[in-house]
Specification:
Layout lengths: L1 H15 L5 H7 L3 H6 L3 H15 L3 H4 L10 H7 L3 H10 L2 H5 L8 H7 L6 H10 L1
Helix pairs in contact: 6-7, 7-10
């Protein structure tokens, strides 16, 4: 009887303390593209704080997993002239994360130069951060 009780308690604790699934974080990040497009820095800060509190993840941890119309979050902010959120995200990411190649093989700076965004306020913030 004791062995079955211990087994049951072990199984229940494993379920209760299992890591959060990716579907949960996807639900929490669902409207982040809208927040970026609307240049709503306050909402972005709330969203990032919630993800950090709930999943112990920082922006750099999930940045590559989020795509807005095929673009990364910072690229999307450049495309939509979302200066407040774009510069905020650049300040929140490490220099190495900002210089890494993205899914298309281009780093943010290369992409911004190729697409005419390097002279924008977000592009200038990127250059000052990585320079």
């Amino acid at each position: 009887m004791k062995k079955s009780t211990i087994a049951l308690l072990t199984a229940l604790s494993a379920v209760a303390f299992s890591p959060v699934t990716f579907a949960d974080i996807n639900d929490d990040l669902q409207n982040i593209c809208t927040i970026v497009k609307n240049d709503d820095k306050s909402e972005l800060r709330k969203k990032m704080k919630k993800v950090q509190d709930d999943y112990n993840l920082r922006l750099g941890d999930y940045y590559n997993g989020v795509s807005c119309g095929g673009s990364s979050l910072i690229r999307y902010s450049m495309e939509n002239n979302a200066v407040e959120v774009g510069t905020y995200m650049i300040k929140k990411m490490s220099k190495s994360e900002l210089t890494n190649a993205e899914q298309d093989g281009m780093a943010l700076q290369q992409w911004a130069e190729a697409n005419g965004h390097i002279a924008s306020p977000i592009g200038q913030e990127l250059l000052s951060r990585i320079g």
